[in-house]
Amino acid sequence: MLKSNFLTALLIVLSISVFAGNTPAKKDGTTGIQFFNGTFKEALAKAKKENKMVMMDCYTTWCGPCKVLKKQVFVDKALGDYMNAKYVCVAMDYENGEGPAVAQQYPVDGYPTLYFLDASGKVKKTMSGVPQPTSGAAGAILTLAKKYGK
């Protein structure tokens, strides 16, 4: 009985420690990165006005790793808190809307690709793919954002 209680307590502690760093989005969508709803040009103007950088997520609708970023990484609370304060974040579908035109200026070798840009559109850093393990991806993106941000 005592051994069973100990194992149960240990399992609970381990579960909390594993899942504590990956805070899922709230139902109202306020946890994680809040992506700008506007054109790329408007995003650059907003970044300039607010003295922020731009993070552009280049994706396609068929890309599996892109979906992992959206559902498991971009919802991270710590990543969202930092990115929302320091960056204007843009999700750019490279096959639809203005995506193909933006892709001419910001080409990618694969999906997903993240561009870290200054407010004038100058590339500071790019990151392709999803860092593995996925549980550490938010931390990897946050490290790059802090290193190449303002």
From TrEMBL:
Q: Secretion signal: which residues? A: 1-20
Could you list this entry's UniProt keywords, alphabetically sorted: Redox-active center, Signal
Q: Which residues form the Thioredoxin domain?
A: 10-146
The record's Pfam families line, in alphabetical order, gives: Thioredoxin_7
Q: Does the keyword Signal apply?
A: yes
Alphabetized InterPro entries for the sequence: AGR/TXD, Thioredoxin-like_sf, Thioredoxin_CS, Thioredoxin_domain
Keyword Kinase assigned to the entry: answer is no
Q: Which domain of life is it from?
A: Bacteria
**Protein name per UniProt:** Thioredoxin-like protein
